[in-house]
Amino acid sequence: MKVDPVTFAVIKSGLDSIADDMAYTVVRIARSEIVKDVMDFSAALCAGDGQMVAQAKTIAQHLGAIPEAMAAVLEKYEGDLHDGDVVIMNDPYHGGMHLPDIFMFVPIFHEGKRRAFAVVICHHTDVGGRVPGSNASDSTEIYQEGLRLPPLKLYDRGVLNTTLETLIKINVRVPDRVWGDLSAQFAAAQVGKRGLEKLFQRYGADEVDAYMQELLDYAERLTREEIRTWPQGTYRFIDHIDSDGFSDTPIPIKVAVTVNGDGTLFVDYTGSSPQVKGALNSTLSFTHSLTYLSVRCVLPKDVPNNVGLFRCIKVKAPEASVLNPVMPAPCAARALTGYRVFDTVLGALAQIVPERVPAAGEGGNSVICISGLRPNRQPFIIVDMICGAWGGRPDKDGLEAVTNASQNLSNMPVEVMEAEHPVRIEDYSFVPDSCGAGQYRGGVGVRRSYRILTNEALLQMRTDRVKFLPYGLSGGEPGGASRNFIEIGNERRPLPGKITTTVGRDTLIIHEQAGAGGFGDPLSRDVANVEEDFLDGKITASFAEKHYGVVFGARGTLDADATARLRSQRAASKPQGARHGA
Q1: In what order do the strands lie in the sheet with 379-386?
Q2: Over 50: is that where the pLDDT of 569 sits?
Q3: Residue 580 pLDDT exceeds 90
Q4: pLDDT tens-digit series, residues 437-460
């Protein structure tokens, strides 16, 4: 086929716009805060053969898992997919990620032939199981985590499967919210279907299909061209999760990234932890997704986000490891492991393209789940995913109170949480001195505290970076540690990073998220930037003096002479070529 560059660009942009329209539809229609406010959902378009060709600007971690989920759907239903069919699934051992993430696949037909799929994934507030929210880190087998759905038809030729509807509703704690979010997924898929039908009518279905395939090849060509410019060799890095919550044993994530001369990468996780007792195990599809995402983050921005890019990356994750578990390993809190995969692969890539890789962020969002019964005995479930800080970048400071770079989440508004649930947020602020010092500092961590306003509630916390701090790069220092506290009356005591426990009325739960790592030598930071951070309350005078050699007087004014002397002394005493951080 002769490719017309104008038509190619129009169809590419059209596919991207359709995917984004699907995402906007979810936000407008969804019922639960975790979808419409936190925005834990994704949307994508696939060609008729199931290859993903376009992604919405949604949860990046989800999208690389679509190929394996699609393969499971086609393995079961190839030859039995019809106009009006809708297939859903969530089982981690059928290509899914964890049970709250329900995939919806809608085949799109034109003139009797299957031409595409609309795909929408939502993290649902609850899918049953032993604890509200279905997302506990202390489950010990998949059977405890909720309702498992292999690929099943929710609609068959346009007719709702009422048996499956009943099965879902009776197994979840908040059926109105779950079914409302499934309905939002369905509506979004219909938006995708209508958008593609317009493209088919304008250009012809065969033409659109040919350009979809060219778009995949184009992404592969650009990716290979870029990787060929990288220095060949094998680059290693290791990072850790503090523990699985059952023991104090750290969970290593080890990677070796090999750059090949043909423009491909081999990413080998041999040496990573065996699968663990707690629910931190990452399915192979999710490990693939985080690997693809990590590499995508250092590629030029004009590389399309589709499976053409994935073709250039081969992944090896040992079976029965924390990155490729076998039944019946639990997976509910696997996102934390995905965040650490992201940090680890970026640590290796920083050795290849150091000018493109920031220091480590906060380590992934913290999940604070609070649930219980209202006075009318109806359940409430809060799934708060706190977004924190980016690491210092090669030419800029890190950001704070924003989504982790591997996601596209949003912090839940305080007003929404308090209006919907019996809690009061008493503190939502930055944690001073939590940033990793550097020429470009890391972002500071976020603090949130929750006052319980019901007689009894179940608290679940999935947090990390208490022991293994977010690493700095190029001489930058690590970010500050994460901390949890519980306050009952006038007594405050620490809580572990991962816990499930019952709390009573008026209990105050405090979470302080880790700060991000710094980039570059702290003594190279502009004094004016240190002063600005001090005036903004992001660092204290003692932090400025200890880490930057910047001195403030008793009244909080910069002492320029003392600063110059101290910085000069430290520079003179520092070993030549010394570097700190990972």
Answers
A1: 379-386, 366-373, 456-462, 498-504
A2: yes
A3: no
A4: 999 999 999 999 999 999 999 999
Residue 170 has pLDDT above 80, yes or no: yes
Question: How long is the chain?
Answer: 582
Nearest in space to 216 (alpha carbons), one of 310, 281, 294: 310
Residues in contact with 282: Cβ distance below 8 Å, sequence separation at least 6, in sequence order: 290, 322, 323, 324, 325, 331, 334, 337, 338, 341
Cβ proximity of 8 and 167 under 8 Å: no
Helix (H, G, I), strand (E, B) or coil at 458: strand
Query: Is the per-residue pLDDT at 407 higher than 90?
Result: no
Q: Report the distance separating Cα 553 and Cα 427, nearest Å.
A: 29
> What's the pLDDT tens digit per position in 22-36?
999 999 999 999 999
Cβ(119)–Cβ(44) under 8 Å? yes
**Which H or E run includes 203?**
helix 175-203
- Both tokens of residue 329? 């390993």
Give phi and psi for 185, each to the nearest 5: -60, -45
Question: How does DSSP classify residue 389?
Answer: B
The tokens for 474 are 């190029």
What is the rounded CA–CA span in Å between residue 518 and residue 262?
A: 34
The full DSSP string for 461-503 is EE---SSSPPPPBTTPPPPPPPEEEEEETTEEEEE-SEEEEEE
73 φ, ψ (degrees, to nearest 5): -65, -45
504: closest CA among 368, 370, 367?
A: 370
